[in-house]
Design a protein that fits this description.
about 300 residues, alpha/beta, Rossmann fold, 8-stranded mixed β-sheet, globular
Length: about 300
């Protein structure tokens, strides 16, 4: 139902072709809107067993996790929200610092009656998941972070010097005017430049996500996610300055043609038990480029006993 509403809204906004389909979540998953922390998040829930929270990043939505959700649902309760201002979640004017978004996810888990949980996160989802892990370390059983830095943690200042990351400072009213009606052009830049092979980010996925990012307020919210990075770095450095460490087992996965082993370097600055992993034949878009290897590596880590 919610995906159909997104299709209708996208049609009203432009003359773009019909919204193509990314892989669907398996039968048995439900979708609902949950009020939390002054906003509303769109959440997919399915499966049975220990909870696993899946947090997406920019350029995608919670839809990206369908292949992993299908693998997990037999033995895990899977919770996959759209982050604040993204996908089919509400688009509030503010609140995009990651500590606040950690509270968004905490509220979702409270509404669902979830106490302890593992997390699998990608891109901006890493940053929200990291914030939540610092807020509720006793409740996070395992943590997988995939292919994106965490503001203020490890080699953050060196990472910022990469010219490919110019979009971190791209935002504001004029930037919104530049991309209005050209969302697909802007997003193609991400899907092309951060892929090992751009053809692996399919046309169906491009149409699907471009339509969602063309919804009212979506690009403003996306720019706000990046605009909060300075505050995120301040918040994370303040936490690190206390001498705290994340004690849960952590798997730091980088795409072979993207962050690679750098992901583990980032997380060793904050985590006590970090395992390094590299997704082969993949750039940044791990679930588009090599879902088979990604799912296998995540499943093995979540199911490990030590």
């Amino acid at each position: 139902m919610f995906r159909a509403l997104a299709v209708a809204a996208a049609f009203m906004l432009s003359a773009a072709p019909a919204l193509a389909q990314v892989p669907d979540y398996p039968a048995g998953f439900t979708e609902r809107d949950i009020q939390t922390n002054g906003t509303t998040l769109h959440v997919r829930v399915g499966g049975h067993g220990p909870a696993v929270v899946l947090l997406h990043g920019y350029g995608e939505t919670g839809d990206m996790w369908a292949p992993l959700a299908a693998a997990l649902m037999a033995d895990h309760t899977v919770i996959a929200p759209d982050l604040r201002g993204m996908g089919l979640s509400a688009h509030p004017a503010g609140g995009y610092d990651k500590m606040n978004q950690g509270k968004d996810i905490s509220g979702v888990l409270t509404a669902l009656g979830v106490h302890d949980y593992a997390m699998v996160t990608h891109d901006i989802g890493n940053m929200v998941g990291f914030a939540l892990a610092t807020q509720q370390p006793e409740h996070v059983t395992r943590f997988v972070l995939i292919d994106a830095p965490v503001p203020g943690v490890g080699p953050w200042e060196e990472i910022l010097k990469n010219p490919l990351l110019w979009h971190f400072r791209f935002g504001g009213p004029d930037m919104e005017r530049l991309v209005a009606g050209r969302e697909r052009i802007y997003l193609d830049r991400f899907w092309n430049e951060f892929s090992a092979d751009p053809s692996h980010f399919t046309e169906a996925s491009r149409e699907h996500y471009a339509a969602l990012y063309a919804l009212p307020g979506a690009m403003h919210s996306g720019f706000a996610q990046f605009g909060a990075f300075d505050q995120d770095a301040i918040d994370n450095r303040a936490w690190l300055a206390t001498g705290a460490r994340l004690e849960m087992p952590i798997l730091a996965l980088g795409g072979e043609k993207s962050f690679g082993p750098m992901m583990a370097t980032v997380m060793r600055a904050a985590g006590a038990k970090v395992t390094e992993g590299v997704v082969p034949a993949s750039g940044h878009w791990i679930m588009e480029e090599n879902p088979t290897a990604t799912v296998a590596m995540v499943m093995a880590f979540l199911d490990a006993r030590s």
